[in-house]
Design goal:
Chain lengths: ~280, ~325
Amino acid sequence: MNEQRTIELELLALRVREHIIGMATNGGCFIGASLSCADLLVYLYSETLNISPENLNDPSRDYLLLSKGHDVPALYGTFAELGFIEKERLANHLKTNDSIYWHPNRAVPGVEFHSGSLGHLLSVGIGIALDIKMKQGEGKVFVIVGDGELNEGTIWEGLLVASAYKLDNLVIIVDRNEFQANIRTEELIPLESIDKKFKAFGCWVKRINGHDFDQMEQTFSRLPFSTDQPSVVIADTVRGKGLPSIERRADRWFVNFTAEEVEMLLDELHGEKESILTSETLMVR
Amino acid sequence: MKMNYEEKLQEIAARDERLVVMTAENRAAIRNLPKILGNRFIDVGITEQTMIGAAAGLALRGRVPIVHALATFLTLRAFEFIRTDVGIGNLPVKIVGGVPGFLSEANGPTHQAIEDVSLMRGIPNMKVFCPADHEELISGLPSIVDDPSPWYIRYTTQQPVEKHYEPFAIGKAEVLGDGMDIAFITYGFMNRETWFAKKILEKKGFSVRFINLRTVKPIDEKVILSAAKECALIVTVEDHFVSGGLFSIIGELFLKHSVTAYVLPIALEHQWFKPALLHDVLTYEGFTGEQIAARVIVHLNQLEQGIDFHVFETQVEPII
């Protein structure tokens, strides 16, 4: 990727992170997982997906399903930056006059389907991918799942079905931020080697750094990785990416900061000193 | 010549490109469709949850999926997928549950879908069709496919006990007779034995009204409220737990309209039924036409003598 484009995407991702931090107060949000997948969403919507505010009803578009729905602030931020929704709408976060809440829903233009209960949207994606195949369409279906979400059995039964039906128009992206809700995955339900597990279920797997736009370009420009197989991208990410004070912190899954803390975090995002966060840590799960 | 279920599906599929048939490897009722429907027949193997999620995805693309599996695995294993993907999404997925109620015969409690109506009717947007027999299933199918709502259908291969004259309409019950002593209200499989009970009671000189609900949701409020007003005793008959099904629905309806009536529920108490061949199940559990008629007579007598009959006589004996 040329340097100019990389800088543009980095700036876009920075603005998306500003939006995410802005939603981490007055009720709060799942900040850690949102920050870990922000670069992936920014890249996919900017460079890969045939989805734009103009073609949301076009059956030949691509689909992106956010199965780990609690990271929706990253999606809201991306949608606001790319013109799917007006930026002002983000001020309605958690308000009854809008539908910008802790999990995605179709009242927000660009959201293909609601989620929140883990392990659902792979199967929904399979249905969409099957229909595209039946109609000999070109569209692809991207499903973003969390690594903790891989605990759900429906992920693995879905993979069996996706492999059986040779859904090479299906792309599963694992946001591998190494955390369940409040515990490291490897300390609770170890997942490694994830690559081998997906391969064993009939997928073609690539593993990349989920914050590196060059690696994303090299990977997502080569879809499908193999004809007749679902493509899987395991994106190694950092939970809380961009805010050293909360990066890889098990206790910063869901946060509800004060206005002062939000100001500190915005400064921190822009390279100022680390924030001193005094809001109590929340265990919501 | 009369069509069977899969022939009817084939007919609808031929005129309606939206229709896709799915199954979690339950092909008994649709065994000839794979070669006819080609890629519009999707067997996902024994993955009920994935099937429902995928059906939601297909519906998002404009399809009308008709999904098949055993009623108990569909409504229980895949419940959250039905509620969350199909229900919240309000998508036109038609969920066909095989061997519901007593029809699971000797399979045992794992296979007894006797809370399915309760679960499915509790989902906003979801409608429920419990055909009395195969003929009624076939006659209702086109309307159900055309209706934009999600539906749960209790599948049956039972042959009709009586000819249906009233054409099928969603939310409209089939009412036979205008008797004033007893009004039977039933749905699905229990139509047959309830019909026999009606015949027995009529021979004994009682006047009997027979209400086959067809769709349990939406329900035909009008005919039920008329029966409450005009008949001495209402008897609800269902192969379902007493809570959450028809007896509960009638209770909710009467409360809503400030109506009181004598209602005798013939349903399964809070235990699973004795696994056996169908006729033996009915006899053991007291659901044959003769037994239903006998219970009704006992209660009518008690009613005349002013005895409170709202005491269930069923013995409670664990079956496992």
